[in-house]
Each structure stands twice: as C-alpha cells, then as structure tokens.
Amino acid sequence: MQSQDVAPRPAPGSAADRIVDVEQAEAALVEHYSRLVRLAYLMLPPGLGRGRRVLTAHALAQRALPRGRASAPVIPAQNGGASAQGHARGGDGSDGDPGYAYIRLQVVRTALAAGLRLRARRPSRGHLPALLPQVWGLRLFPRSGGADELALEQRLAALTGPARAACVLRGLEELSDGDIREVLTGCGVRDVDVTAALREAAKVPAAQYALLDSPEFDACSLQARPTDLRRRRQHTRAALAAAAALAVCGALVALPGGGWGPDGAAAPLYAQNPAAEAALDPGRLVKVTPAAWKTSARTDFSVWPARGPLIVDTALLRRALAVWARPGESVHVSATPETPSGGPAGPPQLLYAGEVDNARVVILYDGLRIARYAEPKDGTAGAALDFARVDGATGAEASALVLGRADGNVRYLTAPWVTKAGERDLSKPGAGLMDLTLTDGITSPLSSPATHTGTCTTWNVLQLTDASGTHLLSDLGELVPARLTAGRPTAPKEVSGARALRTWAPFACSLEDARGQGVRTVNAWGYTRQQLPDASGTAAWACTRAETWRGDGSRVLAQFHTPGGLFGAAVAKAGDVPACGPRDPHVLAGVLWKSKGGGWYLLAAGDRATASVRATGGVTGSGRGNLLAVPTKQGAQAGLEGTLEDGRSISGLR
C-alpha cells in the first residue's frame, strides 16, 4: 500500500524519448499535488514567513504545468531516483512517469529562483506575490511540530538554496548524490555550486530525514487564524475615506477654469512656506545647553545637549536638513517599522554633529523621531538617512543612541546623566564587566551582536550607570538600543543583580528574533522550574516578551533550558498576544523532550498561578498544579489547556 502523498519512482533510463504533454503532466500534478507542495514549501527561503511560504508553494506547484507540449529530458533523477528499484515508497508500478519528473523539475527550479536576489529587470516569479491562490482575512500555516522539527527547520534555514534543495531531495525523494546533481544542474545551478550544496547538505544528520514527512512541513494540512481585525477595520475605513477624497478631487479638477485653481486653498509651495523654511534653516536648529538636564525634571532626549566638533558646520547641517526633507534617489533611507520618514514639522533639535570612523554624522530629534544623517568624509555620494521612533522615551530608554557601526563594532552616544559605561556578555553572567571609556558622551567601540552572522555563541550588551542605578541595553540593528529587563511582567526590574543576569544567560541568543523590529524593551521572566523524568535534573522555563515603540508587533517566546545546556530553546512563539505581558501576566507552554533513558515525554509548564494543566489531541493527560509530564512517542502532536487559580482558562502558546 502506498500513501497518496508519495510520488511514483520510475526506473532510470526507461523513457529516453518520451514527450510530456499537458494532460500527462496535469495527471501527475493532481495525483501527487500534496507531495509537490511539500517539496516547494521545504525548498523556499524561510525568510518569506510561514504564511507566504504556504501560498507560494501552492502557486509554484500549480504553475508547473507545461505550456503546450514540453520536452522532459530523461535523467535518472528526473525519473524518480533509486527508489523505483523496488523501494516501498515508490513501487506502485508507475515506472517511467515523465509527467511527475517534469513537474518536480519545474517546482525545484522555481523554488530555487525564489531564493536568488531580486533582479532589477526581470524578477523571478518566486519573488512576486502569487496571483493565485489568494486568501483574504485569514492567516494559514502548517501545524506546529515539536523540538526536533524546530531544530530541523533551523538547520534548513541556515543552508543555501541549492543545499536546502539537495537536502530535501535526498531525504524526502531519496535520490542519490548523482541524481541530485542532475536535477540541480537541470535547474541551472553551476557544477561548482552543486558540489558545494551537496557538501553543505551532508551536514544535516540522516536521522532527521524522517522528520521531513512531519505535519510541521505539510502545506496542505493547515491551521487558520484571523488577521489583525482591528487594523483591517482601520484600513477599510481609510480606503473608503481615500476613495471619497479622490472622488472629490476629481470633481474639483473637472470644474470649469480648473476648480479653485492649480493649488486651490493650499499654502504657498513647500520651498516658500515659512514653517518649511524654518525647518530647513540650520540657524534655527534647537541647541540645548550642556547644563540644562541638571535642572530639568525630565530625563529624555529633549534635554540632551548638542555635542560634537561639527555643530558649527553650517554647510553640513544644511545638507542634513535638506536630505531629511527631500532625500534624493542615491540616499539610502531606512526606518523602523511604522516610523514616518517625512521631513520635520519645524526646526528639530541637534543632538550631535561630528566625524565617526569614515563618515560625518548628524543626529537630530523632532520630539517623535531620531534622525541620523551620515555622509562619507570625501563627499556626499552614498549618504544614508535612518529613522527610529522614540516617542515617550525617558530614563533608561533615552540613555543611548547608536552613533556608528564599523568592523563588527558599535559606538554609542550616551545621555549627559550617564556616569559610567561597560560591556558585558549577556550569555556569561560570571564573566564580569569590561569598562568602556566615555569621551564627551561617546563610548569606545564594543562588539555588536547586530552585525554577527552564523551560530550565536555570545551576546554583548551595553551597561550604563547613572544616579538611578544600572541599566542593560542591547543593539538590535537600529538607532535606539533595546532596554533589557527581568522579572514578572507586572513589575519588571533592571538586569543589574546576579539573579537577573542568570535568568537572561541561557536565552541571550533569542534576542536574534527581535532584530530590526522596532523593539523598545525585552523582558525575560523565569516563570517556573520543572523536575525532569528519569532523574534527568531540573529544567528552567522562561518567557521573553519584546515590546515595540509603535505598540503592536509584540513578540513572545516560551523557552526551555535543560541542565548542562549552554543555551535554551524556543519551544513556542506568538505575536500580538497579551500573554507574558503586564495585561495578562500568565503563560503556558510545552515541549516534546527525550530523556537520558531514551523515553519521550510531553512536558508542559504554566506560571505559578496555574491550577491545572491538561494535554489534548495526540497526547492525553492532565495534572493538578502548573506542571505536567506525560509519556508519549516521538513526533506526537498535542494541544495544551490550563485553568488559573481564579477559574479562568488559558491556552498553551504554539
């Protein structure tokens, strides 16, 4: 008996001159549709996101049909590989099926193309949103797997596109290296890249190949969740208002004589508007005196003094303001999510102007945003303009700004009330603090985790000291470093003591998930500990919650750390949920875990306010209290439900 999700494997060399027509290819596509979609899903770049990968995988499979008649070169790999020679997964008697071979080749080719850089003139189909299928009002994604599937997903994400394809063809299609080479070459991959891909794919243990058939990677068996209903309603109202405004403007333009005239009731052109001219005048820049912060009741960016040797360089300041208002095509503009990048409404405040490494840098503040202008020392070509939201920043959140990054290091401009700065490895709480020099508020360079690639082994953070105490800040690739806290979400505390540092240490590398998201603060809460079965020691459970400057877009990770391990593992992830936050300071999560004795268990843990926990779905079991350990088997799928002490229900993060 053969699963319907398994493609037939015909014998090599049995169809040397066969031609694939549309009917034959369509029959193969319909019969093996779910397997072809699984292949595409696994080979697509993980950066697309789970929801888009699902729709793109279906689109690539559906668009694999030939136009008219297409020749299908018969090579061993295209005809199914070694499995046709009596293997149980391929022995259904459909030898020599060039239809499946052709469809699979097209799927692999388009999935690989989606991983290449988007070309300016002829973008690949894989880069563009699929016309069909389309889903409105729902987010679709495969069911979540266990820790093993998560580990395999991370391994595949670290591979190049050809290496990921080679791994999937080897593990799922059971092709030999020679057959894989034929397929990748047929997809346009160069021989030298094929060799490198095979070598890289060999790093994935063969024991994990069976997980490729897991429901975690089944893009045809999906879960559905609603999109952001509140934001969708706002967008609908905004679209209706825009349509009404467009209709009114069209009617006015159609009036005799041009309606109210070319500009109607508008003010003069931007360059002649008094407010706009004031915003572009370097002589009108707000420059706070160096001692203003000492007598102010506020500790925010509005009391930062103007610093740097170039604060009197009128030409530089004029260029910075002009580029902010009207960035040219050659200017690289970046902004944190949902941060407006338009010009200032009035004269902004000057925070810094000087030379940093090989650039001239100007940092400005308009009450809502920090704007950083940088240009090369030898000209203005290649200028950059970066924005970050800082509305409501005060205290530790307004203690430092990124001045520049170079050679894997970062320099900060610190607040005038900062008295001491140091560098600390967050993953090693006992490593101690390395002092940094402060020169006119500028730190000496320190290693930046935002520029590191590859496997995370350390995570260096900035430690600042002022009259209120000690604060930890982490560079997440943006202008404003994120503030780190620890403790229960209703009363988070600074990461200054040994206990807070030990809480963060196993989960320091999880900050990679928050890079480039406009994160304001990240809190780590070690909510419980659990005795492991088979006398395997005690595991720690923690949840980390990243809050953003814009309000929405929060990210929650439930994490699990076993004794002896250097780092913990993220076992559940959610976005825009109140769990593990001040509004809902509760959490429940689970993980499939293998004991030292070889037995598999479903482990679940809630915070200490959890009165009972129960497992549903593929694993059943329940227990009083906030902990649960149920024997199970590898790959089991389960849901978690809990009851709080006040009687409310809580669902497990997935």
Structure notes:
This protein is of the alpha+beta class and 654 residues long. Mean pLDDT is 83; it is low at 1-18, 69-95, 117-121 and 255-267. The radius of gyration is 29 Å and the shape is globular. 23% of the residues lie in helices and 27% in strands. The strands form 8 sheets. Strands 12, 13, 17, 18, 19, 20, 21, 22, 23 and 24 form a 10-stranded mixed β-sheet that branches. A 5-stranded mixed β-sheet has the order 5-9-8-7-6, with helices on one face. The chain is built from 13 helices and 31 strands. The two termini are 34 Å apart.
Return the structural class: alpha+beta
Radius of gyration: 29 Å
Residues in helices, as a percent range: 10-25%
Name the poorly predicted regions: 1-18, 69-95, 117-121, 255-267
Number of helices: 13
Measured distance between first and last alpha carbons: 34 Å
Note the main sheet: 10 strands, mixed
Shape by Cα distribution: globular
Q: Number of DSSP strands?
A: 31
Strand share of the residues? 25-35%
Average pLDDT for all residues: 83
